[in-house]
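Possible regression after last week's pipeline update?

I re-ran a chain I had predicted before the update to compare outputs. Posting the input and the new output here so someone can diff against the archived version. Not blocking, just want to make sure nothing changed silently.
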Amino acid sequence: MTQSRIALLPPPETAPLPTSIRQRLMHIERCLFWKGEVQRADLVGTFEVTTVQAAKDFRLYMDSFPGKMVYNQSRRRYIPQPGFSPALIQPDTLDEFADMPSAQVPLVRWPLPLRRASPDVLLVVVEGVRERRKIEVQYQSMTGLAPEWRWISPHAFASDGERWHVRAFCHTRRKFLDFVLGRILVTRDVDKTDIDPAADNEWNTFVDVLVTPNPKLEAEQRQAIGGEYQLPDDLELTLKLRESMLFYVKAKFESAKTEDPAARQLFVAELKKLK
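New output (post-update):
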C-alpha cells in the first residue's frame, strides 16, 4: 500500500490567518496540485485582489510552508518542489478541481441536463420558509396528468444528492410531503400559516441507516468498495438521517434481489429509528 504524502499542517503563525487569506493560500495549493504551477493571475482572477496582494500571498505561503514551491524564472510562475504534498487542502475528490482548466490534466463531465428551479419560485419559497408563510403553488406531480394548484406551508429544504426538495405541509392532502423545487411551476398567493414545523414527525425523527457493500459482491470487490467510500474496517457505516429522507436513501442503495450486485454497490443492511 502506498503511504500517503498528504498531511495537513497549520501555518506556523502565532495568530490564526484571516479566512480570506487562508482561502487564497489554499487556492495556491490547488493550482500547484492540479495544474503543476501557479501565477499571480490565478489569485487576481479568482479573488479579485491586486497583483501586489497576490505577491504578498505567495511570499506568505513560502514563508509558512518552506520547501513546497519555488519561483521558476524561465516560466515566470511558481511550480511545486519535487515531492510536493499539500499542507492546507485534502485533495480527496475531483469536484473541487473540475472548474480549474488544466492542459495537462483533461477532465470532462457527463453532459446531463441540470435540474433547476425558477428563480422567482425559489425567492417566494425561501421567503415562505423564513417568514413562516403558506404559498399557493402550481405543482406538477408524477401522479397527476396536469399541474394543479395547491397551498403548501414550507419549513425546510433537503437534497437527495441529485435534486432539491422543499419540505412542506400540503393543505390539499393534509399531510407533510416533499415537493421537488423544479416541479413548482409558478406561485400565486401568499398568506400567513398556522402550521407548526414541530408537527412534522418524519422530519423531526431521526433514523440510523447501516450501509455496507452489497453482500452479493465478492470479498475483494467489497473491500474495494469499502476503500472507495472510506468505510471502517468492518465495512459498515452508520448514517444518521431524517426519516423523511429514508425513501431516497433506500431508492439509491437498496438492491433488488434479481439485480446485478455491481449495479448497486452499497446496500442498506439495517434501519433503526432513534427515539
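Follow-up from reviewer: compared with the archived run. The longest helix spans residues 19-34. Marking as no regression found.
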